[in-house]
Structure prediction request, 522 residues.
Amino acid sequence: MSESVLLHNGMIYPMDGQEARAEALAIREGRILRIGTAAEAREALPSPDLEIDLHGRAVLPSFVDNLTILSHEIGAKVFLDLSGLLNVPEIFAMIEQATRRSERGEWIAGYGWNKSHWGWQRFPHRADLDLVSPHHPVFLLSSDGRVAWTNSMALEQIGIRRDTTNPPGGEIERDSTTGAATGILKESAVDLVRPFLPRPETDVLENALRDIVRYYHSVGVTAASTLALQGEIELLTRIDKPLGLDFDLTLHVHNHDRELCAERGWKTGSGVSGFSIGALWAAVDGTLLSRTAWMLEPYVVNWDLHGIQITPGEELEDLARWCLASGWDVLFHASGDAACRTVIETLQKTGFGCGMHTALIAGGDLVSEEDLQGIPKCRLGLCCNPIKKVTESDAGRTYWGNRWNRAHPLNAWKQAGAALRFSSMEPLGGWSPLKALQVATDPAQKGMGLTLVEGLEALCSRFSHTAAEPCKKGLLADGASADLVVLSGDPARVSSQEISDLRVDMTFYEGNMVFNREGQPS
Prediction:
């Protein structure tokens, strides 16, 4: 049972659609008992177990990561975390250490490399890995999850030869002269390796998930939605609710697993092993960093490169119609302008989102004004990471040229009727919710410039995947679930550039203090 808590002398943002701020709130049995003036809150809770003087600090509904890929984060915890490495020698050193701890022939797996951090435009080569790991197959996944860097032994074990054809929606990169595989596998070609990778034991999986949730709590996040990759729904649902994670997790299920879901009677809003089921999802294309985002015009660095279309339009239409008939929300990953156009055409042709269910787009990085004007009136949401406008700027200008000036048009999507929701979609260690808010509200960032209230709504709100949510998550109101965050200051009293300098001092989930920067018991 959670403590009763009284917070007062603060600037409390109810996020209930009203501009009024409160100065105090009382929490009892996991819910907000009263929000309002200090006198009103104290009258409702005269003898709290814990009383906190906010000293003018801001209180908001806790933050939401509306889209991540949890299995990649777990992989970085269980195997090798490459996300903080800034050059190739550091990666080689980590792999060499891993080979010393492993028997010959055991797989070495790592997650999170980013060639942009190394100052490289080209992809690395299998021969580079062969030098440090000739007797262990190696699988290293890029930070965006779209490219695998493998060595010769890995290619041999998974059966990739000179005559192996590209899988639909993927590419086995080859040397332009010899035709031999370079060790780089893109998009669906990455799936060729997954069956060979070691699977963590359930207790290891659970410990990794606990670590991830602790990080989330430290940045004010108490809810996330994750893409379950094809075949991973079984892996993630091995974790049971008694873990007591103090966290809400929604699983978006891969389109290719929909028959499994149908057999089990799952659909949007179902509860499975303590998780909620969200949408069925499909990837339309890849990403900018991996040069697999599907573009109408070619990449600047290669006149005949348009990226990769992973899922054809007919399959997207089939997915949308299946979801309509079966009671599912649908989610499309679309980054490039060709991919976004295909998604919009799918919505036009199928009428998805015109009823009770929601169409979600993950990315929406580049889209034409004409295509946005063609979006039908529907329940539409955009999962986006504003931080990429900054972190991918160099790559954007290199690969997309002047088109980068139109990238990440959050305001345009909003005006077209999309509900904006912020998400990480990159290694968690590099994602800060307050940095996302800062970039999105910075008027200097072309296409962004959200108001503070709009940015907070995108940061604190989640998509509803049920007909009703009695816990009233995402706002602070009498009777609402006491999921909230205490900041070190007030975002309304600093410039947009200073928002990311604020800290998360406390995080509450259903009335329990799950994070306290000052070290009080939680």
